[in-house]
Amino acid sequence: MKSKFAVGLLVLAAVVLVSGAVGLLVLAAVVLVSGASFLAFASPGSQDDPFITLSYLTNIFRPQVLNDARATEQEMIQRFETRIAELEAQIRAAAPGQGASGTADRFHLVTLNNGQVLSASVGTEIMLRIQTATASGASEPALVNYTSGSTLSSGSALTPNHMYLVTIEGNGVRATGDTVRLLVRGSYTIS
After folding, report:
1. CA–CA separation, 175 vs 191, rounded Å?
2. Per-residue exposure over 167-177, b if at least 16 CB sit within 10 Å of its own CB, e if not
3. Can you give the pTM of this predicted structure?
4. Fold classified for 101-190
């Protein structure tokens, strides 16, 4: 197409040079015919050169893209919510002091009512914060007070704000006051 147009322009240029005013008229006619044929063959909107209208973009393409984006967003939200629920379940399973037992690598505040017993695993650390409690356990020493470097027998009173260590499995603390508060790091059960 473009080569036909170029040939037409060359022919017109030759005619103009040869014939003057008549050539100019013929040149104008050839340019018009060549330009019209070039535009006719350009055909925007063909499969090779798609012509997109604003109404197509507004009424068809944009809503389709938005629907696809919303579907993807909902799918991602669902995956995140599922993963969050899994992680929360793992955290609840590992959180100590929630209910009747716990394990921890950090201190947790544990509340005991009068008469309740906290039985701990070897290596558990206990600090009495509020009220009164006694050491409990079937084997002696019931607890090691590593603040003072001494040991406690079962039934001996704990000193507030001293750190105690459980050295025998199952030993621990019996609450002797109402709403006893302990800081505990390690595994334990409450009965």
Report:
1. 11
2. bbebbbbbbbe
3. 0.47
4. Jelly Rolls (2.60.120)
